[in-house]
Write a structure and sequence with these properties.
There is one protein chain. This protein is an all-alpha fold. It is 64% helix and 0% strand. It has four helices and no strands. The protein is globular and about 50 Å long.
Length: 143
C-alpha cells in the first residue's frame, strides 16, 4: 500500500510540476483560475517566471522524493532527507488546505471569485488528499 500512495503522490507532483514549467514557458492554460484574487477579481499574487520555476522545481523534487519511497526506485536519498521531507511535505500541504483564512484554503474569507470556487472544489481538497496520503506513508513506514 505504501508503494501505491508513493506512486500516486509522485505522479501528482510530477504532473503539477509540468503545469508550473508550462506556465513558466508562457502558456496560460489554467493560470487565470490558479492565482488567488481579491473580492474585485484582482490577482493577489504576481509570480514571476523565476517564482514559477522555483515552485515547479520544488514539485519535481517532491515527485522524486515520493518515487524514492517505492520499491521501483533507483534514487536513494540520505536518511536525513527522508526523515525531514516525509514530515515536511504533508505538513505544508495540510497547512495549505487549511489556508490563510482570507484567500486560500477551506477557511478562506473571500469565497465568491473564480479562484475561490476552484480552490474549494479542487485545490484545497487536493492539498488535503496529498497531506493524508503523505501521513499514511509515514504510518506504513513505521508499521
Amino acid at each position: 500500500m505504501k508503494d501505491r500512495f508513493s506512486l500516486l503522490l509522485s505522479f501528482t507532483f510530477f504532473s503539477l510540476s509540468i503545469i508550473h514549467f508550462n506556465w513558466a514557458m508562457g502558456n496560460k492554460w489554467g493560470l487565470s483560475n490558479a492565482l488567488p484574487t481579491d473580492a474585485n477579481g484582482n490577482a493577489v499574487l504576481q509570480p514571476t517566471i523565476i517564482d514559477t520555476l522555483i515552485v515547479g522545481t520544488g514539485l519535481l523534487f517532491f515527485a522524486l522524493f515520493y518515487f524514492s519511497q517505492t520499491k521501483y526506485s533507483f534514487i536513494h536519498p540520505p536518511r536525513w532527507i527522508n526523515l525531514t521531507l516525509r514530515w515536511f511535505i504533508p505538513i505544508i500541504f495540510l497547512l495549505r488546505s487549511i489556508g490563510d483564512f482570507k484567500y486560500v484554503g477551506f477557511f478562506k474569507e473571500i469565497t465568491e471569485t473564480e479562484f475561490a470556487s476552484m480552490d474549494s472544489l479542487f485545490y484545497s481538497p487536493l492539498c488535503l488528499v496529498i497531506a493524508i496520503a503523505g501521513f499514511l506513508i509515514i504510518k506504513k513506514q513505521k508499521g
